[in-house]
Design a protein that fits this description.
By secondary structure, this protein is mainly alpha-helical. The chain has helices spanning 2-9, 28-41, 45-53, 60-69, 76-86, 94-102, 112-121, 129-133, 142-151, 165-178, 180-190, and strands at residues 57-59, 91-93, 126-127, 163-164. 58% of the residues lie in helices and 5% in strands. The protein is globular, with a radius of gyration of 19 Å.
Length: 193
Amino acid sequence: TEAQRSANTAVSAQFQVKRIRFMPGTPVPLEKLREKLLARYGILAFSSIRAALGNSMVTGKQLQMVLTDMGLEVSRADFCMILAFFTQTDEFEAKNFMRNIIAQSPGSIDVSEVTNKFKAKFPEGNCSIDEIIACINYDVHADLAAGLELYISAYTDPDTGVLTSGGFSLLHQDMAASSPQAYAVVINNVWKL
């Protein structure tokens, strides 16, 4: 942003460029990483990285290995900028990383309709992994269904291993944040609730 402002002062008005970044206040390499993640994993982008990172503390080495395993190439300089944004040491919270890469406030995406269907199917407000996997509809979007089966455990309660309505809502918020258009198309065909 600062470089862009400086460049604009060096040229006449007809050649000046106005650019608003999607993720202001974060390093450009983090924004580029987000774009690569979305391009590679689509609607399951944030679910895939949430599953890979877990919910605890992450070291720089772990993040580097996760990105490599996911096929997301990040230069050493860009990686250092990303890591420096999250920590002065070598550890940071996975939740903080997710909050920044999603670039939306938690709960800012309304998924109450599908969450209410979950609560209607499971009145106690939670279910086992096997129960929710049995509700996945493989008939319409088989790739999405396979991905959900793969990543759903990232949304379970770490103490009990069950999927709560809160975890189910978070899954849907992640999918909607990844691709609002695709989410709107597939949401009614994903579950047999």
